[in-house]
Amino acid sequence: MFRVNGKQRSWYEGMTVADLLRDIGDSHHYAVVRINDKHVSMPYFEKTRIPDNSEVFLIPLIAGG
Length: 65
What we know:
mainly beta, Ubiquitin-like (UB roll), 1 helix, 5 strands
């Protein structure tokens, strides 16, 4: 198990950030994800694994002018 934005989720061996985003089916575009105290940017979502018992925060892309 691990937490995503404060909610418990099931975890599986080898789960990456990209897997998580596909699993939750969230339509937001995320520029950065924080796993515990480490920030991961979009180009690394496919390669970055999420450890069991992690705290994950999804940080949406925000644009303005």
